[in-house]
Amino acid sequence: MSRGVVEIEGAGLRFGDRVLWSGLDLDVQPGEFLAVLGPNGSGKTSLLRVLLGLQSLSAGKVRVVGRSPGRGNRKVGYIPQQRAMDEQLTLRGTDLVGLGLDGDRWGFGLLGAGRRRRRVAELVDSVGAESYASSPVGRLSGGEQQRLRVAQALIGEPDVLLCDEPLASLDLTHQRVVSELIDRRRREAGTAVLFVTHEINPILSYVDRVLYLVNGQFRIGTPDEVMNSRTLSELYRTRVEVLRVGGQIHVAGAQSALCEDEVHHHVDERVS
Ligand SMILES: Nc1ncnc2c1ncn2[C@@H]1O[C@H](COP(=O)(O)OP(=O)(O)OP(=O)(O)O)[C@@H](O)[C@H]1O
């Protein structure tokens, strides 16, 4: 097997006495789609923060596109967990998307400015944001802002795309637009995708492997290998039933164990 674009070896992360995970070995291959699942507080966002160089490991090693994680690695695209932007923010949608290009191979100068504008317009178009991309982002809805963040993350043509619940706050149509866009990027350009989510169903048809984190433990494997009653019961240390209905995965029992809300119960109109 070739070296991964994300290489994680013997990785552990703890805060005080609390071990989020330990002994994590994971190679993510170019073009692979990895879903990162787990209840609140299991360390999904912290894993992305490690890969972004915003959080140090307590043990082990990690490399992203062949180097230590660090700020300003332009080969890494990031769609952060949704937070409403300040209403007073006067930055326009197109400016926000363009920030994803700053200092990169698209260049500056007069010729660069034209290319840059066209490239921003292409990405704005791809997320269906044309009608509001010239408005100040602070006045846009959460879902509209989120689509611009997706365009911003993709515009730099990343080799690794880190997504933190990118579908949260999107309606079903735009969940599909955004997940198809991310899938197309990894198919056409071989971008590896690490996709943190509470809902596997909207992306189930794209997922190659799942990393499921629960209370310091984890499992890695295909959706069939991980999303079954035996494996999730072991992870949650309680009886968990996993049902496959109409191509979707329904998990029952995990909520009572760890107060996980509505997990995996989303009804995706794409898979019927
Ligand atoms: N710098 C830090 N110092 C101390 N504790 C931290 C720090 N960063 C994260 N934590 C704790 O680690 C735990 C995991 O947080 P993280 O955000 O990674 O979880 P998550 O799986 O993404 O959760 P959610 O599904 O709620 O987004 C939380 O309990 C959080 O409070």
From TrEMBL:
The keyword Ligase does not apply. InterPro entries: AAA+_ATPase, ABC_transporter-like_ATP-bd, ABC_transporter-like_CS, Metal_Ion_Import_ABC, P-loop_NTPase. It comes from the Bacteria. Keywords: ATP-binding, Nucleotide-binding, Transport. GO terms for molecular function: ATP binding; ATP hydrolysis activity. It holds the Pfam family ABC_tran. This is ABC transporter ATP-binding protein. SMART domains: AAA (SM00382). Belongs to the ABC transporter superfamily. Residues 6-240 form the ABC transporter domain. PANTHER family: METAL TRANSPORT SYSTEM ATP-BINDING PROTEIN TM_0124-RELATED.
